[in-house]
Amino acid sequence: MPEAILVSSSDAKEDVLRRLKQDTKLKVFGEKVERVRRTRLDDLIFELKSGEKASEFKSLVEESVGVSGKVRVLNQTETVECRDVDLEAKAEQVVAAFREQFDCGSICLEAKLKPSFNGTQTAYVKLPAELAATVIQAGKVKIEWSSCPVRILPPNRRCFRCWATDHISRDCKGPDRSELCLRCGEKGHQARSCRQAPRCVLCAPGANKHQTSGPLCPAAEKSLSWR
């Protein structure tokens, strides 16, 4: 996602936005803004155009907002996915591996682990974009005894017509499975009410005892590139 500036203020958000727009010192900032929106917590987020640095404008926005508000920079982040983590590894060991092998500084790191289809785990670590690029350039991360290939986690994408993960519905040339249950592949109910054993319609019989295009699906994994 692009970098952004978040403004929290006790003043009415319409008044804050009007004040910022009228501040001549923020003319260049306004030209760099792609979108302004209000959050569920009633803050303002100014999303910048791709490649723009929010830190360059933080002090000017703070000056304009005044003592009634707080200004925070939201940096661009990427989620790095690490495959082939062994079954005994814990999230804190993944974090320790990243800190040991890369210059993470004081960044707060958090890792999440999910079981994979091949008897291992997959780790997900959210990083600033520049650090994520460094990790991807390295190609692998040594976590405990395993050398784990890495990639930037791509956007969640699945065709809602045939359920494959290498295209979207408008480009689909596969069979229409939109009326089937995503969990078991049968017709007449949906996955949230399914009581059948999972059966993937993308994988071959005997290797399909999992939900279609789910985290344990080899067919879904094949459509994604790894370093």
Automatic annotation (TrEMBL):
Pfam families: zf-CCHC
Domain CCHC-type: from-to ranges: 181-196
GO molecular function, one term: nucleic acid binding
Source species, domain of life: Eukaryota
Record SMART domains: ZnF_C2HC (SM00343)
Record InterPro entries: Znf_CCHC, Znf_CCHC_sf
This protein's UniProt keywords: Metal-binding, Zinc, Zinc-finger
Protein name: CCHC-type domain-containing protein
Species: Anopheles maculatus
